[in-house]
User: What shape does this take?
Amino acid sequence: MGKVSKFAVVGNPVAHSLSPQIHMEFAKQFNDSISYEKIEIPMGEFDDYVGDLISDGYKGINVTIPFKLDAFRCATKSSGNARQANAANTLKFEGNKILAENTDGTGFIKDLKGRLDFSLKNKNILILGAGGSVRGLLPVIMDEFPKKVSVANRSVQRAQQLADEFGIQSILYDETGSEKYDLIINATPTSLQNKTPLIAKDTFEDCTIAYDLVYSSTPTPFMTVAKEGGAQVASDGLGMLVEQAADSYNFWLGHRPETKSVYEYIRNLITQQ
Ligand code: NDP
Assistant: This one.
C-alpha cells in the first residue's frame, strides 16, 4: 500500500462537518490512499496551525468558517477565484508553497447546472447575505452572463461594497418585493437559527429555484417559505457542499470524483441522523 496522503478540514466550530465522509467516498473511487480529519483551530491561531500541519506532512486542507480570509492571506500563490473572492476554502501544500483556491462558487454553479439543470444566462438573481460565501459565489455567477444580480443584506453597507466591487445592484430587504426573480439564493445562516428569511413570501411567486446554502435533513425554513410563496423548486446546499469538495479534491490530487452517488450517499446519511 502506498503512502497515505493527509488532508483535513479546519474551522471553528468544525464538529458538524461532513467533509471527512465526502472525501473518503471520493478516495474509494480512485483507490487513493488518504486520511481526512476534522481539526478545530482556536481563534487567532490559524497561521501557527497551518505551519504545524505543513511540518506534519499534510498535503492540503479545506477551510471553513471563520478562517477563509486567513487562508487567503497566508497563501504564497492564489487562483483567480480566490483572488476575486479575497477568500480561500482550499489550501494545497507543496514544499514551502501554500496554494489557495476557492471552490465555493464553482461548486454552487455545478450543482445548479448539473443536478438542478438550471442556467444563469439572462436570469434575474437575488442574493440574500453579503458574507464570505457570497464573495466566493459572485465571480463565478458573473461569468455565467446573468441579466441582473441584486444583493440584499442586514448590514446595508456590506451589500453596497459588494455591489461596487462586482458591478451589481444593492437593494434593501424591503425593496425585494418590487421585482420578479428567477433564482433567489439564501447565503445567510438564518435557517440554522430556525428563522425565516427577511423577504416577503410573495417574492417567490415567479421564482424557478430558491436555493438555501444551508443544508439539512428536512426542508429548511427558507425552503418552506419559498415553496409556500410559489417557488417551483426549493433546494438546500448539500449539492454545493459535495461539488465544492470534488473541486477541492481535484485541486489536490488531479482527478475529479463522480459526485451524484456521493450526494445520494451523504443525503441518506444525514436523513438517518
Ligand atoms: P458569513 O458569516 O461570512 O456571512 C453571513 C451573512 O449572513 C452576512 O451577510 C450576515 O449579515 C448575514 N446574517 C447572519 N445572521 C443573520 C440574520 N439573523 N439575519 C439576517 N442576516 C444574517 O457566512 P458565509 O457567507 O460564509 O456563510 C453563509 C451560510 O452559508 C452559512 O450558514 C454557511 O454554513 C453556508 N455555506 C454553505 C456552503 C455549502 O457548501 N453548502 C458553503 C459556504 C457557506 P451581516 O453582514 O449584517 O452580518
In short: The first strand starts at residue 5 and ends at 11.
